[in-house]
Amino acid sequence: MSKARLKPRRVRPKVSVPTNLAYRVRTFGWIHDQPYHSTHGTHGDDAMLTVVRSGRGFYLCGSQRIEVVGGMVGLVLPQSVTGQEVGILMADPDEPYDHDYCRFAGTQALASVKRIVDRHGGLPFFKPTVMPQVIDLMRQMRGFRDRHTDLSQQPDSRPPTPMEGLLAGVLAVLEMPEPACDDEKKINAANLRRYLQDHMAQALSLDQMADHFDVTKEHLCRVAKRELGQTLLTVAEQLKIDWATVLLLQPEISIAEVGRRVGYVDPLYFSKVFRKHMGISPRQWRATR
Length: 289
Fold this sequence. Notes:
This protein folds into two domains: 24-174, Jelly Rolls (Sandwich), CATH 2.60.120; 189-287, Arc Repressor Mutant, subunit A (Orthogonal Bundle), CATH 1.10.10. By secondary structure, it is α+β, with helices and mostly antiparallel strands. Helix 2 packs parallel to helix 4 (162-174), helix 3 (131-142) packs antiparallel against helix 4 (162-174) and helix 6 packs across helix 7 (217-228). The strands form two sheets. It has a five-stranded antiparallel β-sheet with strand order 1-8-3-6-9, covered by helices on one side. A four-stranded antiparallel β-sheet has the order 2-7-4-5, with no helix packed on it. The protein has helices at residues 79-82, 107-119, 131-142, 162-174, 189-198, 206-212, 217-228, 232-248, 255-261, 267-278, 282-287, and strands spanning 24-31, 38-40, 47-54, 56-61, 64-69, 73-76, 88-91, 98-105, 125-126.
């Protein structure tokens, strides 16, 4: 008795619910040991973040062929933003890649991706110097995968998850200016901001910062004010509070711990600085999100 041959069902990606939020994670997961894996760079009006841990593959887009290897990050914008067709990411069967992926949307998220991609010459895959920080944030995102695998159909009324905060953190890290390898101690805006980012968890010490740049504290403050348009203390506080708002989206981190992670050991002083920049306390800010 012959059996009828069933036609394979073609699975199409779900169309995501539109969002007006700043950051919105759609899907998250990882690919491991799949020699013949291939996928579109992204779907719909969402962007795609790919963090390649090891292995190799290729991103094909029109006549463009980009070799993708471990240590690279991919940020693919939708056709609705670039006006160009989205390419195909495919593994090398002889050495398939191991990568995390996160499809996302959001007004601030897409604007951040565009700035990052533009800075890398429009290339959707590149090797950032901050890869260890990116991998650490993606590792934290893995911890929420069982609960937040596919959120593409959920409306804006869904409360933000820790994954939104971690996504914002990844994009913030990738947007950090990268100094020239041979000129890291030149006092310019990029190097000053990088130093402040690298020492985010510490209280600002102008003496230590001056030692790093091999200048006096007075010279450092004078040049920094000219380069940044603000005092070092003001810029340091802004960077710390910006990062604090990302951490506050993760409910499992206490407000006191958030303060410590951005260099404020005293919770009362952290709250005072936060209120100065945001107009409300950290507790009030968290309650509105």
